[in-house]
Fold each of these.
Amino acid sequence: MNNSIEIKGLNKFYGKKQALFDVNLSIQQGMFGLLGRNGAGKTTLMKTLATLLQKKNGEITVCGVPIENAKEIRRIIGYLPQEFSMYPSMKVGEAMEYLAILSGLSGAEREERVDTLLKKVNLTEHWDKKVKALSGGMKRRLGIAQALLNNPKVLIVDEPTAGLDPEERVRFRNLLSEIAEDKIVILSTHIVGDIEATCEDIAIINEGRVIYNGTVDQLLQEAEGRVFTMTASKRELPELKRQLSITSMHTQGNKVHIRFIAEALMQGAKVCEPNIEDAYMLYLHTSGVREILGEMGGEW
Ligand SMILES: Nc1ncnc2c1ncn2[C@@H]1O[C@H](COP(=O)(O)OP(=O)(O)OP(=O)(O)O)[C@@H](O)[C@H]1O
């Protein structure tokens, strides 16, 4: 049994609406980031992998097992959905034990597994607390613990850091990195910072299409020499906004400092070191251009 996820020619429809277009990805052990705006198709892809949605066509294997073998796939995959909630009135430990029973774990094994997992996600001291009394970050960590009950080879987490405060977010990311030492962890997010801090390999998905698949370093390299800074007067800003793809700006008195992506250096601008947010914006921007050029039959 190999340790990778192979996706070939995947298409997915909701009725007539196509949500995924010819997705091809090979995902290896470690942390894999799936980055895309709201509505890009991330959840659809995650749910398809978790066998909660059926694909229209294409091939998927998870650690060598075809996705059609849903029973086996569910043994291999742990899944933390975007909207995760569980037994709010139960105590943390009771809820975990109950889920462990449902997962078929028995007696001593169950007790040991629940203890180990609560320790791993740093919730042991909250065993007696009701689930509804946990903070957002604690709830997410409990979600991870339940997803790991069967000791899956793959952990899929959909938008886990939305709504967490910065400290909880960092703690959660570190937990995922630890888990990724011996598993495939797929982290889906629209928050560029989550990817930057944790993932080496990523895919960017936009309107159902994978528009980038590679390492974070490659992505940054591709943006090299195409990110610029410039200081202008506030009065010029509306025109600059029309002309440029601005990735960030801040105002200082009458001046505005902007950071933008462009194909070539323009007067008054200085080239700067790209960050992953710039590179992501550049990719979204150029994929739009690609589509438009494609429609016109032009060469890219
Ligand atoms: N049950 C559904 N019926 C019809 N269309 C759907 C359904 N679920 C999702 N879609 C559409 O499919 C596309 C992809 O949605 P999906 O939820 O996978 O995106 P996402 O990247 O996960 O975004 P978000 O972070 O907002 O969940 C969107 O255009 C969405 O409106």
Amino acid sequence: MMNMGGPSTIPEVHDFLSRLFHDRDLIPLPFQRFLAPVIAKRRTPKIEAQYTAIGGGSPILSWTRKQGAEMCALLDELNPASAPHKPYVAFRYASPLTETCLNEMRADGVKRAVAFSQYPQYSCSTTGSSLNELWKVSNDQGGWGGNGEVEWSVLDRWPTHPGLVDAFAHNIRSVLAQYPPEKRNQVVILFSAHSLPLEIVNRGDPYTAEVAATVFSVMTKLGFSNPWRLTWQSQVGPRAWQGPQTSDSIQGFAKLGQKDICLVPIAFTSDHIETLYELDIEVKEEAEKAGVHLTRAESLNDNPIFVRALADVVSTHLNAYADGSIGPTSKQIGLRCPGCTNPKCGRTKEWLARGGKPVTA
Ligand SMILES: C=CC1=C(C)c2cc3[nH]c(cc4nc(cc5[nH]c(cc1n2)c(C)c5CCC(=O)O)C(CCC(=O)O)=C4C)c(C)c3C=C
Ligand code: FES
Ligand SMILES: [Fe+2]
């Protein structure tokens, strides 16, 4: 289960930010090795305060472990032929890192594994970075797992999986049910996803289109019961990012007289500072000042519909792989972005297409 991860405790915040700012797949900086530590150090107090405000750390590891355990219990029933199934967590910027994950798999003698991205929508800056890291750690000198020790397949995206869409629709309906019937279908459903720098969007990154696909599937499931928009949050730094921004959009709607808004975080499946701090504290305060009554759909976390969806995504993949109707990767992952200049992408994708085996002469 691959994801970015988050600091479970306050003392882990600095190392989390340091790894994040060192990642050239996420943020290519000039003089990265010198600038990354400086920016990470400067940003640490602010981010520590945010994690303190949400209870002293990111809940992502505990949610991921719970999701993994429940998903595998379901998988043992659904796919007895490949049982027992066991979840391993590989975070990009926080513990447990890819290295720890592979060491655990090695100790357990794992021979078959699915690299399962926990980002439903694919971006080269998120899932792509995690896969590049998997290549690096498993292929580096002394690394394990990248030379045929493990038969790998990849679940790189699942933006419109019916179970995922159902889980989002269920959480939205639960919030709408709290409104009086005469207001219920007037509430604006405001889907909010983490933004991307426009350089990445314009390189041809699939993320914005896949997020829009999730949103459209959820609205289809809801029978287009309400007006809706997709907006983008959490931009950092001076570069241009995909807009419109979530907070600006709420202010814009307020000016237009639209004062009932229900926020839906659509590109991350567990709670994290961007829901618990940015949306629930910062954005909510600004909205209230503008006279907007803001509600939020719960994150998917351990929603049973969502956990069943995770099991179904994997089960369907295992069956299709076993009967030969799919290979180790999706067709889509083989196609690099038209503007890609990152040699790591090519190397990782070729290795994954071989199911994690070395090149044979
Ligand atoms: C699908 C989700 C995410 C995308 C896409 C994404 C892209 C992206 N992020 C940054 C920079 C930062 N992100 C930070 C934290 C953070 N990012 C996401 C998700 C996505 N990011 C999450 C869930 C979190 C919080 C982790 C948690 O609490 O569990 C941070 C650190 C916080 C801060 O300093 O503000 C930075 C920096 C870029 C540049 C980027 C696209 C290239
Ligand atoms: S940046 Fe998208 S494939 Fe390299
Ligand atoms: Fe981010």
Amino acid sequence: MDLKGKKIAVLGAGNLGIAIAQGIVEENLTEAKNIFLTRRHTEQIAHLAKDGFVLTSDNLEAVKASKIVMVCVQPKQLPALIDEINPVLTADHLLVSVITGVSIAEIKELLKIDCAVVRAMPNTAIAIGESMTCICAPDHAEHGIAVQQIFNALGQTLLIEEKMMQAATVLGASGIAFFMRYLRAATQGGVQMGFHSEEAQLIAVQTAKGAASLILENQQHPEVEIDKVTTPEGCTIAGLNEMEHQGLSSALIKGLMVSYEKIKNIK
Ligand SMILES: NC(=O)C1=CN([C@@H]2O[C@H](COP(=O)(O)OP(=O)(O)OC[C@H]3O[C@@H](n4cnc5c(N)ncnc54)[C@H](O)[C@@H]3O)[C@@H](O)[C@H]2O)C=CC1
Ligand SMILES: O=C(O)[C@@H]1CCC=N1
């Protein structure tokens, strides 16, 4: 979908809403003046006015002016928001929900009209065009493809079944935090070995980027790349085996599963 000239309402300009808006502008999909950012207290996002975004606490104004409505509030804030915008929503609106754990059927129950609803699950790297965004649109395949085209410009995308959205949230959206924690720990290890923290962080971060790029470009199994690094009797296999004795893979998988269980009771 070509966003040029189209108005977009981002309802709930918090961490993710702002990141999406910044990504859209960064990747030249449209100009900031076409994006309404709503928040109940706009003074907290006043710094974004200089970038050209339209800031308002008036959700109705934003929805009336826009064709695409991105709903970016917390799950518990959704019913009140939909209640508020119901009077101005029309069948021509395209609603894109990034909200965790709320199904399309649940959203449609809150709506007074039958507009297209698509769920998208990006992550905060969308601000720099590097998101992994999973999308589902069980009732509106053509809208799902249109929304996918938007997110394609903001990283990689995957159209998935709605039943997989919770797993996509843990792996792709929460995943940013999980990888950040690895980077923090690696940096701390680097400092303990004698690097200044900025040096340690650069080495850890560029190495993580290289590891991810190897997999993305070569489409190999991670173990194939690991085998290339682990010199016999070398330091890599010694460290790797100790990490596994300490439960690295197990801790990661257990963390993912606790996160996945939590989504089921998130509202
Ligand atoms: N933060 C992330 O990395 C990701 C978040 N999500 C989902 O995106 C949604 C937003 O998450 P965050 O941005 O982290 O939360 P947040 O709390 O930073 O942002 C929500 C914003 O909505 C505003 N808000 C609440 N009710 C409003 C209303 N009626 N009108 C206008 N603004 C209103 C709040 O003041 C807040 O600034 C959540 O449902 C979350 O599950 C999904 C993927 C990634
Ligand atoms: O922590 C959360 O619940 C949301 C969903 C994924 C990222 N943030």
